[in-house]
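Bumping with the actual sequence this time:
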Amino acid sequence: MSELSQVSIDQGTIRVWAWILCAVTAAAILWFGRKRPSWLRYSRASIAAVCAAVLVTALWPSGLGRVQPGARGVVLRFGAPTGRIAGEGLYYVVPFAERVVQVNTQINTVHFDRAQAITHDLEPVYADFAASLHVEPDRVVGIYRFFRDDYVERIVDPAVQDAWKATAAGYTTSDLIARRPEVERDLENNVQGRLRKFGLSLDAIATTRFNFSYTYSQAAQAKVASVQRTLQAQQELQRIRFEAQQNVIRAQSEVQAMKLQRDIPVAQLIRMRQLDLGRRAIDKWDGRLPTTTGTIPFLGGVLGGRSD
């Protein structure tokens, strides 16, 4: 059967149908219990039966109730837990003698601000947590009997604080950041072990922030600055080494060039110098001719011509 085809039945509907059934039953009793031939004379048994039907209809719905989704009902008899648990939906208890107290079993998130602990290297650390937990449905009787609605203050807060101190003591300050998933896993196991024996179950726990002491923060900043200076010095050293290698290569090239020049005849070497000087002169010339007659600037000597 699909969910759309199911009929929703609640307390109000049951009470209405109970009074309708009571009215039909009373009418039938009065009809068959009348004294003939009169229509308004009834036997005492008929009147007593009608009164009993009305009384039962009036009292019976008082033992009817409904447990909300995400909760369980603890059945009390004259204020004492009976050990019986009412599930979600409708329930029925003995009117005036029993009643039902609902205990929330949905996931509840509890926040912890600046939970203090000491790390393995004796550094104080403060952490912010968000713990999600719920009451185990089959253990709501114990929760109600011993803690009522104060289980967060009486159980969860001390358990999480103690578990955080025990977990942080096994890690150094740097490990709390570098191995954060492992820290959260160990913390979750520690908290779970402390809560489960009371009927509570931890769904998840997350550390939203770590705060360290001012002295440690200053030391960490100084260490970061020192590392940055070391890296900068290493880069500067690499630059100096590279420039030194360039100078060595340049000097080796000049020495090799001088060796080659010694093997070239003097006349050819002079001619090469002249051509190099002429090329440099041409590179520096702006392209303007002199106003006086004569040879073209810088070219006369290079081309070997003479001005007559």
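The tokens above came from a reply further down the thread. The domain at 108-137+147-212 is CATH 3.30.479.30 (Tetrahydropterin Synthase; Chain A).
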